[in-house]
Amino acid sequence: MLSLTDSIRISSPFSDTRLTFLSHSGNKTNRRQPTFVRNRPRISCPQRKNICRCSRTEQPQRRKHRPAKTDDEKGIDPVGFLSKYGITHKDFAQFLRERYKSLKDLKDEILTRHFSLKELSSGYELLGMHRNMQHRVDFLEWAPGARYCALIGDFNGWSTTDNCAREGHFGHDDYGYWFIILEDKLRQGEEPDKLYFQQYNYADDYDKGDTGITVEEIFKKANDEYWEPGEDRFIKSRYEAAAKLYEEMFGPNGPQTEGELEEMPDAATRYKAWKEQHKNDPESNLPSYDVIDNGKEYDIFNIIGDPESFKKFRMKQPPIAYWLETKKGRKGWLQKYMPALPHGSKYRMYFNTPNGPLERVPAWATFVIPEQALAVHWEPPPEYAYKWKNKQPVRPKSLRIYECHVGISGQEPKVSSFNDFISKVLPHIKEAGYNAVQIIGVVEHKDYFTVGYRVTNFYAVSSRYGTPDDFKRLVDEAHGLGLLVFLEIVHSYAAADEMVGLSLFDGTNDCYFHTGKRGHHKFWGTRMFKYGDPDVLHFLLSNLNWWVEEYHVDGFHFHSLSSMLYTHNGFASFTGDMDEYCNQYVDKEALLYLILANEILHALHPNVITIAEDATLYPGLCDPTSQGGLGFDFFANLSASEMWLALLENTPDHEWCMSKIVSTLVGDRQNTDKMLLYAENHNQSISGGRSFAEILIGNSSGRSSISQESLLRGCSLHKMIRLITSTIGGHAYLNFMGNEFGHPKRVEFPMSSNNFSFSLANRRWDLLENDVHYQLFAFDKDMMDLDKNGRLLSRGLANIHHVNDTTMVISYLRGPDLFVFNFHPVNSYERYTIGVEEAGEYHVALNTDEKKYGGRGLLGHDQNVQRTISRRADGMRFCLEVPLPSRSAQVYKLTRILRA
């Protein structure tokens, strides 16, 4: 639901995609600008209520009456999700209502500068470097604090004066946008085009304009074939009609100067005088109508013309075919001009500011070399530009996400490339049974050791992995394998770098970020965005749309929302009190940005998926924006991985609390179906911690240096933790690269503290040849098949009916599948009673204790099938008596239903 001011229409892909909105003031509804677009699904949005007032004498009854909602207001409730969850906190409800009003005011402010929210989120179409069809390159950048702007680079010898913005509207406007034109250079011996508006089609090598027909011949052809006799007369003689009108008014010898014209009486006086002069004329000589002026500020005139002429005029199409004859192709352009900015040129911006001159990498640059603080113009010839081959996969009902980092994805101690990832990692992901790839660290960042979270250039893929076309190929190949591609996007903060980043971009401290302490993260040394500024919104919202339009990504994982939602950056103790979500520390502007981001993304790209990472679980994360929510599709349960890590490192096995495990994994059951669960993601491996495999089985790549008992314990818990985490929650599960086969080492990026070593900045794929790691991988693959083949995660929520802290057994039903876990480190149960709802035969579909998964194989073949007993247990009508070896889990499928 895109709760825009009134309505949205999205045009066809063959024209500029637009969203048309209505603004409302009082009882009048005024359309901002008429637009002709193709019919698309209409999304209704709220209008302001029209309030009618009458006196007491006119009111038959004194009672409160709520005005009926219009069609566009139906379904809009700023506090709708509160009643859904039974939340009765008055202050938070009032906060949501005020936030909704602020959202409407923000949209009104935006629409005073932008035609639509679609235009707001498409800034990349104008800003940055763009080829213009009139043999030139246009550059547009926002730097309100600068006094002078120029482009410098190897194309002009790094001159600060050759290519600068002009004074006035076409160089520097009132909003701080600088416009620079780079004219293509005429080749020696070539003459300038006779038409100053001559256009060139850069996409095709050959076009009609390359046939050698002259402009004079084209215009003559248009006159002979298109214009009818006399139809273009006004174009040739612009003053003919005015001269005839003047002669009718003043005669053939009328006044020729203003002095001779003298003072003219008003129109009404002249009309009365004419009427008096012709009062005795026959009626046939008089006009059949009079113009009556009632003193209004406007008049409407109905002009009656020849119907046949009007019909003929409407049927005639514009002479576009002749105009296309003047349009030349790429061959014609290359023959006549040299590009003002060749492909691969390096450049920067030069500013003169109140604090002196400075140089910056453009904020909208699409390819950057951060180590050299240089932008690279990326405009490959059409024959070398990447051409998409595969369609984006259909959005699945459940997500099995494989999280990865391109740079550390190789086995060699180096920074891996996009091409390495395509050839080595993508096939493994497909084989492992995942249906989505989530990539971190793709957006350009200066320092490799920051993993990619201190972003410097938001529109550029990291050059250390390859070119923009290389990343397009990665996405395309993933789509060809049926894998969605998610991008971890960091809009919660930005790198503090200046020359290559956005900090102090135009020499001031209030361009993209807040001033003072609020503009700096309290602990991370990063800059905090000023989300309430329309130009910052323009930048960030366009950035989201850019990655979808340019690189065909299928969704976003919004990193560290708590850093942006609170002025304390989330570093405060949360008690769960609702006041903490609506007090003075909550950044309402950041909330409005997230609402706009979800509304616009889902309106423009209905299949896009957005995932929220918020440690505070802000209320309404995944509820519709029309009901007061933020509009995300999923939210990450961060507490689950923290719980597992705490249990493994600090709690003996026999003291594990089953109730705590279950309550942490399922949360408070609000929006559990929208929950993304993971046992461990990149945080456990990258942020100074150890992977679960390193804790459980150490750094050993074999059995020789670890006892058999410890190895069995570690592998058993590794499998059980993943199985319960992936199946007890919602419709999404995530795993970090390598953890599916128990990668035994953490990740540590090269930095000064480790002498810039790459020894831990890689993945040991060779471990898959080892028995232990291959067995863990085989189990993870079969676990993915539960959803891949049985659509497990897309079913309803788990029915958790047995949680016993004494026996350390957990059991739940999900659809027809029964899951039973025995976490006890010692006790095994030969006939443990578990309740089920359906009577029948249950077959073991997955057993963590099987030998092929590195288990003991204690269940015999005759124990793989269990038949229900007609006895109530766990609140169910029937029960099973199943064998449960210690530290093992089984998945039973109902294969045969028995009728009573």
Automatic annotation (TrEMBL):
Region (Disordered): 54-73
Gene3D superfamilies: Glycosidases, Golgi alpha-mannosidase II, Immunoglobulins
A Pfam family that the UniProt record links to this protein: Alpha-amylase_C
Keywords, ordered alphabetically: Amyloplast, Plastid, Transferase
EC numbers for this chain: 2.4.1.18
GO biological process: glycogen biosynthetic process
EC main group: transferase
All residue ranges annotated as the Glycosyl hydrolase family 13 catalytic domain in the record: 415-764
Catalytic activity: Transfers a segment of a (1->4)-alpha-D-glucan chain to a primary hydroxy group in a similar glucan chain
Subcellular location per the Swiss-Prot or TrEMBL entry: Plastid, Amyloplast
GO MF terms, alphabetically ordered: 1,4-alpha-glucan branching enzyme activity; cation binding; hydrolase activity, hydrolyzing O-glycosyl compounds
GO cellular component, one term: amyloplast
Pathway(s) annotated for this protein in UniProt: Glycan biosynthesis; starch biosynthesis
Primary residence: plastid
InterPro entries in the record: A-amylase/branching_C (IPR006048), Branching_enzy (IPR037439), GH (IPR017853), GH13_cat_dom (IPR006047), Glyco_hydro_13_N (IPR004193), Glyco_hydro_b (IPR013780), Ig-like_fold (IPR013783), Ig_E-set (IPR014756)
Keyword Nucleotide-binding: no
Family: Belongs to the glycosyl hydrolase 13 family. GlgB subfamily.
The protein's name in its UniProt record: 1,4-alpha-glucan branching enzyme
Taxonomic placement: Eukaryota, Viridiplantae, Streptophyta, Embryophyta, Tracheophyta
